[in-house]
């Protein structure tokens, strides 16, 4: 498995188990089923990507994993224990960066450390995280002075300083230009290999999913069900032009029902 | 600009006052204008290099208009007597008050400032804490909200008769009234500020391990600050109104009382002087609050300049 390649201290990542997770919202008085009996087993230090059409329920699933909401049915477990509330060992990078406008980039990134009272001892990590996402020169900028992509990178840094055991990424690179995006994808892989956390990534981009993840879960339209699972055990760094990669991409597109489109 | 003020000075000094008037400070007013003129002239010749001078230049249309205004005022009052006395005294009469009666004016300023500051700070602090409590805790909202809805819209001055006999002194009664007038808008706006904090802000802090305390102090309150300041501005405006009324009717001190007293003695020049001082004071306090806001909320873009 890919996870084994990650590093020898792979014990740091946590496991994640979803058992028949279903979720419903109330929308204009009607129940709106969003997740339909999703079962998934993510191993320690594994990198899993969730791929599915817009509005199918990916962000909803991530909120459940984070512990921000509780599912209508089924159960979610990490390290064999039920997920009941948010925990700093599971850090989310939300789709929308949502930086605090009253804090500078630096103190936005410092948020998690401050909340847990670790700022004094772990201050250096903030610089490291900012360097990693290329925002060193903007430490003192306010969010309204950042571009959309920079805000997203700041949000990524805010998650990374916490040294999570499970990193939950909701289209974290969505607003970046293609060049920065490629660079950040490489950074993410390097980071994951180095820190060996477990990663759960939501993306619209089939190539991104296949470049980063060891396993790509294809979800159906709302209510989301698991449609297919594509495993990519190629070593990193992966190349888009590689024949095996092209074959996998075709396979994923087929599962998404887009095989004629390209 | 300097010339305009020189003209005002000359006009005041050499155009004789209307017969039967006894303005003792005509000469002083002329000298004051002349000094201002000289100062402006000096600034124009010497000050070209300084930043302060550029600011002065921006003000020059205003300084010119003021000179015109004073000239006209001087002409229609002291010189020609077109406006009825004692309701419209000439500028030198106000100067006279400022020089002769400054002791009592200063006493008034001090008394008003003390009353206003105590009432305003108490009201703002209580309003802020109450607002946060209602915005944050459902229980607090359940109990406080109806009271607020019922009593809040009542003008603070309506409590005046009651306050003056319930409280041991008229001073403490006035503090209560000013605090009430300040507290209501601060409470409502703090509450609405806390209530409309985006839930995503809380989600982020919660996933990063924030405690309830952190959510209130480091997320809800900073996010609500722009609203809180709107409340503080409204409260300050209200507090001025209540201050004057309370001083006129209860506390026998302060600028409001001075106004009343001047009117009672038909000392209209004193009244104008007090009004002028009061305008400067209120405007100064509002400016101060704006400065504070600009400092604390420098992260906001597109702030209104005062
Ligand atoms: N709080 C809510 N109340 C009611 N309906 C909701 C709520 N949140 C999400 N939904 C609905 O749930 C569905 C799934 O939303 P979700 O945000 O999970 O989609 P998504 O897969 O992340 O989409 P995208 O890729 O566009 O981000 C949507 O149809 C949405 O309308
Ligand atoms: Mg989403």
What labels would you give this structure?
heterodimer; A: 262 residues; alpha/beta; Rossmann fold; 2 domains; six-stranded mixed sheet; four-stranded antiparallel sheet; 34% helix; 24% strand; B: 306 residues; mainly alpha; MetI-like fold; 12 helices; 79% helix; binds adenosine-5'-triphosphate; binds magnesium ion
Helix-strand makeup class of chain A: alpha/beta
Q: Low-confidence stretches of chain A at least 5 residues in length (pLDDT < 50)?
A: 1-10
Number of helices of chain A: 10
CATH secondary-structure class of the largest domain in chain A: Alpha Beta
Total domains of chain A, how many?
A: 2
How far is the N terminus from the C terminus of chain B? 25 Å
> What structural class do the secondary elements of chain B suggest?
mainly alpha
CATH class assignment of the largest domain in chain B: Mainly Alpha
Q: Greatest interface and its residue counts? A: A-B, 28 and 22 residues
Residue share in helix of chain B: over 70%
Task: Give the name of the CATH superfamily of the largest domain in chain A.
Answer: P-loop containing nucleotide triphosphate hydrolases
Q: Per CATH, which architecture of the largest domain in chain A?
A: 3-Layer(aba) Sandwich
Number of contiguous helices of chain B:
12
Number of domains of chain B: 2
